[in-house]
Design brief:
- This protein has about 525 residues and is an alpha+beta fold.
- The protein has three domains: about 1-210, no CATH class; about 215-295; about 305-525, Alpha-Beta Plaits (2-Layer Sandwich), CATH 3.30.70.
- It has 15 helices and 25 strands.
- The chain has helices at about 15-25, 55-60, 95-100, 145-150, 150-155, 190-205, 215-230, 235-260, 270-300, 305-315, 335-340, 345-365, 390-415, 450-465, 475-480; strands at about 1-5, 30-40, 45-50, 60-65, 70, 75-80, 80-85, 90, 110, 115, 120-125, 130, 165-170, 180, 185-190, 210, 265, 325-335, 370-375, 380-385, 425-440, 445-450, 470-475, 485-495, 500-510.
- The strands form eight sheets. Strands 18, 19, 20, 21, 22, 23, 24 and 25 form an eight-stranded mixed beta sheet that branches.
- Strand 24 and strand 25 form a beta hairpin.
- The longest helix has about 35 residues, at about 270-300.
- The chain is rod-shaped.
- The termini are far apart.
Length: about 525
């Protein structure tokens, strides 16, 4: 029998202590508790030993300390295995109960990490023996003291205590001898039942061992290495699946090892390392990608439509933008704008030019083009990059025709507003291979085209003055658009920078288009 009561003070009724001591002497074996208390202050420390009264000491077969250790999360996972007073070592009373039950020698101290008991090494963690709990509160049969006193318990079950270790202690909440355990923090376990679990652990030799610090560190570092490899795939779904399987797998391994070997492998640190080792790089990568996307969006929103920006970001990156590519280049210029601007105030020039550039850019964006730059009233654009289209020449010519329509609408509006509207627009288009990429400095950068084919498009735009025709294209462009547009050969011209003549074509309009949509010449002498 074990009595979890400090029997150090006389009872109010003097006759009770001898009676209880005699009762303890009549049972086969009896064990109670002692306390070692320490008080410190002003540079000194005192300690005292609180033990049962003399009648109890004479009746008891053993006594030991009783003390629980709460971990940082307030959970009681172990009992203090031993303590010392004036050079003498006292073991936990759970060892005395087990010793008397097993009829073996008392435990032998070895170190703060182990004891020797019943032929086994008892693993300790800094002098604390981890309790192998059988279950939550009330796993062991609990009987009311009043029911036992009144004989009710034995009437219901005559063998309730036969051949059993009986522990007497408080279970009421008001005495505050209850503690949260690994099984439940919400439903605490009485201290006397924690002792019962400790006695069960000792008698059956089912001790719990903690993995050493070096092994815990090695496992945690291995988890970090595993997290690195899990983070390598660029598919989020695969990464998430591997992370989930790894975390669940390690938890299962640790649980199986604990169940079969009662060996505690580290779980929290490796799991956290796995989680953070995958999540943080993935998050950093996502933030970096988002930053790169914003940079690209900010850069290219000046040149192409928002829809194309999103498409480009989804399919390409900055490193793939600088390259040689076969595209179509469009140059446009306002005929008569130089003379007109000399007659207008700067404010009036801006009031005409800004709506014009806005309308033309909108048309270019509509057909998937990229606005390279504005040079006064001139617009340079290209089709086929950064998002490649096989029909880039057709797109460029469609844009040129719609730009003519947009100009007509602007002229009609300006005329109603009483503004100057006697202007024309010349467009030159050439198709061929050029360099496309980001050029400039850290402070100023531009997405542009460079090459002989870009120069030819500029020369064709200049030739619109010579031929008094709104849209001129080269041979290379003609070969790509001839099935959709009606054209007329203008001339074979040796332009600046070329040694061989190039074929120049006048664009008439779409095949089958009404006469009102067909392009016509303007009066050459009316142009500057």
């Amino acid at each position: 029998m074990g009595v979890d009561i400090i029997l150090a003070e006389p009872d109010e009724a003097p006759e009770n202590d001898p009676m209880f001591a005699d009762a303890l002497g009549e049972v086969p074996t009896s064990v109670s508790v002692i306390q070692i208390t320490r008080t410190s202050g002003q540079g000194f420390e005192t300690e005292s030993l609180v033990q049962p009264l003399t009648p109890y000491r004479e009746a008891l077969d053993g006594a030991g300390i009783t003390s629980f250790i709460r971990d940082e999360d307030a959970i009681v996972r172990g009992v203090v295995a031993f303590d010392s007073y004036q050079g003498r070592r006292y073991f936990n009373w759970a060892f005395d109960i087990a010793r008397l039950y097993l009829n073996v020698e008392p435990p032998i101290f070895q170190s703060n990490s182990s004891l020797q008991f019943n032929g086994q090494s008892v693993p300790l963690n800094g002098g604390v023996m981890l309790v192998n709990y059988a279950g939550p509160a009330k796993t062991y049969p609990t009987y009311s003291a009043s029911d036992v006193h009144d004989g009710i318990t034995l009437e219901q079950n005559p063998d309730a205590f036969r051949g059993k270790i009986v522990l007497i202690g408080a279970t009421t909440v008001t005495l505050q001898d209850i503690y949260p355990t690994p099984f439940s923090a919400a439903v605490p376990t009485p201290g006397v039942e924690i002792v019962a679990n400790a006695v069960d652990t000792i008698i059956n030799g089912k001790y719990i061992s903690l993995s050493p610090g070096w092994l815990a560190l090695l496992i945690t570092l291995t988890a970090g290495l595993a997290a690195h490899f899990i983070s390598l795939p660029k598919r989020p779904t695969l990464t998430l699946t591997l992370l989930t399987l790894s975390m669940a797998g390690w938890l299962t391994v640790a649980l199986l090892v604990f169940i079969n070997q009662r060996y505690v492998l580290p779980v929290a640190a490796p799991e956290i390392m796995l989680f953070l080792g995958v999540v943080l790089p993935t998050l950093e990568q996502a933030v970096s990608q988002e930053r790169e996307k914003r940079r690209l969006r900010s850069l290219f929103s000046r040149f192409i439509s928002p829809e194309m920006v999103d498409q480009m970001i989804a399919t390409q990156d900055l490193n793939s933008l600088n390259k040689r590519s076969n595209i179509s280049i469009l140059f446009s210029d306002i005929r008569g704008f130089t003379t007109l601007s000399e007659k207008l105030t700067p404010e009036d020039v801006v009031a005409l030019l800004n709506p014009y550039l806005e309308a033309m850019s909108r048309v270019i964006y509509k057909h998937g083009g990229t606005v390279d730059k504005y040079e006064g009233d001139a617009i340079i654009a290209f089709f086929g990059e950064p998002v490649h289209y096989e029909d880039h020449a057709v797109r460029a010519l469609r844009a040129a025709m719609d730009m003519r329509k947009a100009l007509a609408e602007l002229k009609a509006r300006w005329e109603k507003e009483g503004r100057p509207s006697h202007i024309e627009m010349g467009v030159g288009i050439n198709s061929g291979e050029v360099f496309v990429g980001l050029l400039g400095s850290e402070q100023r950068i531009n997405y542009t085209v460079i090459g002989d084919n870009a120069n030819l498009a500029s020369r064709l735009q200049d030739l619109t003055k010579t031929y008094a025709w709104p849209v001129l294209i080269s041979e290379s462009t003609y070969q790509q658009i001839k099935d959709e547009f009606e054209v007329e050969f203008a001339d074979a011209v040796t332009v600046k920078g070329k040694t061989q003549p190039v074929n120049v074509y006048k664009v008439i309009g779409r095949k089958g288009a009404p006469e009102s949509e067909r392009l016509q010449s303007w009066q050459k002498q009316a142009l500057p």
